[in-house]
């Protein structure tokens, strides 16, 4: 086959002169984005770039998750359920991508990671402000976490704002109350800076919704979307745990945590416990 037959000609209408036009790289600011990967190992270890890209892309997806969850909270507050569910649906797709990403990092062997792990110092995913803000927005709040970000005003402000704002669940339950559902007053008046804890008085309300899905379709559908969010989050946590275990075994984490045992305890945390408890009642 000749070179000419195996080459796609550029159509005459295709723009090729970007002297005074917006280009793909310019719009995405690729010069900045692609220069943000700066391995510290010396000589540079081949696999450190994988480690950096994995975590930077995770942070980009978390930025979008926060953007969508923030919009969903606002829309629920405005009683605009349909567009709020659209935001939640997008978050669910992002969660699947984040979970699948662990398979890429899992190609890093213990020997390979051990050759550059030392350059991380005390850097750890535990210190991700965006991850913590996502957890807080979903209800797993812990004010003690703020001190991790004391030296970074922007990160501290992000996490503090998520701590002080009603969670996605708070906004959903408030919307249900405005729609006439008998949501207990203690739920509506709770201190939103505290972690959500199981509230048995809420289960009968949700049980009635689940016993008659057709009669309460909007509420029922939203409950199931929230269960999807939690299910996806737990899968992400589990995949994280297994990837860490595969690479470093039972070593302590770079940030000082116990490593795998610390991640294991996170699997006991829940966002929407009543939505699981209701299944026992049916």
How many strands in all? 0
- Report the total helices: 13
Tell me the β content: under 5%
User: Regions with pLDDT < 50 over 5+ consecutive residues?
Assistant: none
Q: Tell the overall outline.
A: globular
The helix/strand class is mainly alpha
What is the H/E string?
HHHHHHHHHHHHH
Main pleated sheet: none
Helix and strand arrangement:
Blueprint: H1 24-28, H2 30-33, H3 48-77, H4 81-105, H5 110-114, H6 129-138, H7 153-164, H8 168-178, H9 185-188, H10 203-211, H11 217-248, H12 260-266, H13 273-281
Describe this structure in words.
The chain has 282 residues and is mainly alpha-helical. Helix content is 58%, strand content 0%. The chain is built from 13 helices and no strands. It has helices at residues 24-28, 30-33, 48-77, 81-105, 110-114, 129-138, 153-164, 168-178, 185-188, 203-211, 217-248, 260-266, 273-281. The mean pLDDT is 97.
Jot down its keywords.
282 residues, mainly alpha, 13 helices, 58% helix
């Amino acid at each position: 086959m000749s070179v000419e037959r195996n080459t796609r000609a550029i159509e005459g209408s295709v723009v090729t002169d970007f002297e005074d036009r917006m280009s793909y790289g310019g719009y995405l600011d690729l010069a900045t984005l692609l220069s943000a990967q700066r391995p510290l190992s010396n000589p540079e270890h081949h696999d450190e770039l994988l480690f950096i890209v994995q975590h930077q892309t995770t942070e980009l997806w978390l930025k979008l998750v926060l953007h969508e969850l923030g919009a969903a909270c606002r829309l629920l507050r405005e009683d605009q359920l349909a567009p709020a569910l659209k935001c939640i649906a997008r978050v669910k797709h992002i969660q699947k991508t984040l979970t699948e990403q662990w398979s890429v990092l899992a190609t890093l062997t213990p020997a390979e990671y051990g050759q550059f792990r030392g350059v991380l110092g005390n850097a750890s995913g535990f210190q991700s402000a965006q991850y913590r803000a996502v957890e807080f927005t979903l209800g797993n709040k812990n004010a003690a976490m703020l001190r991790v970000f004391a030296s970074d005003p922007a990160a501290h402000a992000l996490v503090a704002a998520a701590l002080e704002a009603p969670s996605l669940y708070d906004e959903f339950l408030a919307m249900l109350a405005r729609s006439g559902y008998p949501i207990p007053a203690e739920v509506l008046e709770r201190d939103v800076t505290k972690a959500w804890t199981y509230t048995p008085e809420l289960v009968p309300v949700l049980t009635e919704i689940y016993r008659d899905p057709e009669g309460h379709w909007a509420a029922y559908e939203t409950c199931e979307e929230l269960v999807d969010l939690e299910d996806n989050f737990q899968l992400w946590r589990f995949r994280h745990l297994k990837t860490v275990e595969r690479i470093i075994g039972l070593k302590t984490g770079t940030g000082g945590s116990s490593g795998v045992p610390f991640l294991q305890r996170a699997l006991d945390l829940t966002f929407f416990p009543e939505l699981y408890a209701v299944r026992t009642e049916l």
